[in-house]
Amino acid sequence: MYRINKRALSVLVLVAIAILGMLFYIGRFLIFGGEWATSRLNPTVQSRGMITDRNGVVLAGVTDGRRTFAEDANVRRATLHAVGDREGNIGTGALRVYAPNMAGYNFLTGLYSRAGTGNTVALSIDSNLNVEAMRALDGRKGTVIVSNYQTGEVLCMVSSPTFDPIHPPHIDTLDDEEGVFLNRAIQAAYTPGSIFKIVTAAAAIETFEDVFWRTFVCTGAIHLGEDTVTCPSVHGEIDIVRGMRVSCNIVFCELALDLGADILSDYTARYDLSGRTRVGGIQTMIGNFDKAEPYTADLAWSGIGQYDNLVNPATMLRFVSAIANDGNAVELQLRKKSTLFSFLSNRSSRLMSAELARDLGDLIEIQNSDNFPGLQIHAKTGTAQVGGDRLPHAWYVGYITNPGHPLAFVVIVENSGTGSSIAAPIANRVLQAAIR
Ligand SMILES: [Zn+2]
To answer: Looking at residues 116-127, what average pLDDT do you find?
Structure first.
C-alpha cells in the first residue's frame, strides 16, 4: 500500500511538472514564436509594415519595399540609428532587424499572411527623449542611452553625428572618420577612463576584507620604475569611499597593483565588459582588457580605465543597470514590452551578489546633487585620455532611484573635455525630461 501511494505521488509530481513545462513553453511561444519561425534570410519575408516609438509615434513605414520616415525632422534625425536609413547603410536599425516581425508573422498558423499591410512593431524608444538627448549633444560626437533597469527596455538611444534619412548624405562627401552610419551605442568601444574604477572597486571589495578600512596616501603621483602615474589633485590621506567620490587615481592604482592583472581581467570578463552583450538581440562591439605585468605603470593605469581598456557603451549600461537592480542584469530590449507577459520575457542573469551591488551603489551615490535637482542619482564620471593633443572622452554613467523611474544611463561625448563638465549636464537634461 505504502509503495503504491508513493508511486502515485511521484506520477502526480511528474504530470504536474509536464503541465507546468507546457504552460511555460506556450507562454514563450506566444511571445517569441515570430522570432523562432523567422529568419532574416527567409526569402518569403516581404518588406512592409510600420515602426512606432513606445507612445505610438510613427517612426518609419515600409510599403512595397519603399521606406518612409517620421513627419518631424527632429524625430527623424534623433531616431535614425535606432530605426535605420532609407538605403540600409545602418545595419543595426529596427527596419532591418525587425523586418520579419513587420512583415506579419501569425502565431496561430506560423505563416505570413500574403494580404495586408504588415504589422506594427512598437519600439521601446521614446522619440521625445531621443530628441532631447540629440539637442543636449548639440552636434558633438557621442551617444546617450537610457534604459529601465527592471525591464531592460531602452527608452533613449541616440548616436551623433546623424542625418535626416529623407536627405541622406552623398557617399562622396562622407568623411570616413565621422562614422555617421555607426550606432555608437552598440557598434563602438571607447577607453573608459575613471568609470572603470567601479570595476576595480568591485574586485577589491570581494578580494580584500579590509578594503573599507584601508587608507592610502595621495601625493599626486606614484613612481613605478621609470614611469609615473599621476592624480590630478593631491588628496593626502584618503580611503576608498572618498577615493571614489573625488575620483582619486592613486587609490585605484594602488588597488590595481595589489589585485594584479588576473583578478582585474577576471572581473572585467565577469561583467562582460571585455566581451560583448546584446541589445534587442543585436550583438554589441567587443570590449578589451589586456593583462599588464605586475607592479608596472601599465597595470596601475589599467585599474583606472586607461592602458588598453575599451568598453562598449551599451555593455556599460547593462553593468550599471545590474548595480541598480540588486545585481541582476536584465537583457537590453529595443521593443516595447507587453505588460501582460513581461515576466516571461525578462531574460536576466546575475552579474554580482546583491551585497556587492549595494556596496557599489553606496560608493557612487551623489551626495550633493545640486547639479541634478530632484534626482536621486548614483553615478561616476570618466575623463578618458586618448593620447596626442586630442581632448579626452567625457563619460557619465549611473542610475536614478526615483520612485516610478528605475532608469540607468550612459553618456559619452568624444574628444570633448571632462566627464563632470560635459557629460554630466547632458545626463541631467535627459533624465529631467524622462521623469517629467
Ligand atoms: Zn588623488
So the answer is: 89
Q: Please list the residues that pair with 160 across neighbouring strands.
A: 142
With cut-offs at 50, 70 and 90, classify the pLDDT of residue 40. Answer: very low
CA 98 – CA 252 distance, rounded (Å): 43
User: How far, in Å, from the CA of 374 to the mean position of ligand 1?
Assistant: 30
Ligand 1 centroid to Cα of residue 136, in Å, is 31
Distance 291 CA to ligand 1 centre (A): 24
Higher pLDDT, 134 or 88: 134
**Cα–Cα distance measured from residue 97 to residue 257, given in angstroms and rounded to the nearest whole number:** 44
Ligand 1 center to 248 CA (angstroms): 4
With contact defined as beta carbons under 8 Å apart, do 392 and 384 qualify? yes
The residue that leads in pLDDT, 137 or 32, is 137
Q: Is 404 helix (H, G, I), strand (E, B) or coil?
A: coil
C-alpha cell at position 320:
550599471
- Strands 49-52 and 120-122 come out as parallel
State in Å: Cα 289 to ligand 1 middle.
Answer: 23
Taking the centre of ligand 1 as the mean of its atom positions, its distance from the CA of residue 67, in whole angstroms, is 54
- Mean pLDDT over 56-68 rounds to 91
363 CA distance to ligand 1 centroid (A)?
Answer: 16
In the reported structure, the alpha carbon of residue 354 is separated from the centroid of ligand 1 by a whole-number distance in angstroms of 29
| 238 C-alpha to ligand 1 centroid (Å) | 8
Predicted pLDDT at 4: 63
Which DSSP string corresponds to 339-381? TTTHHHH--EEE-S-HHHHHHHHHHTB-SS-TTSTT--EEEEE
Q: How far apart are CA 325 and CA 342, in angstroms?
A: 16
Residue 418 CA to ligand 1 centre (angstroms):
16
> In angstroms, what is the span from residue 123 Cα to ligand 1's centroid?
44
Evaluate if residue 253 carries a pLDDT over 90: yes
- Average pLDDT, integer, range 137-151: 97
Q: What are the structural domains, with CATH classification, of the chain?
A: 193-435 (3.40.710.10)
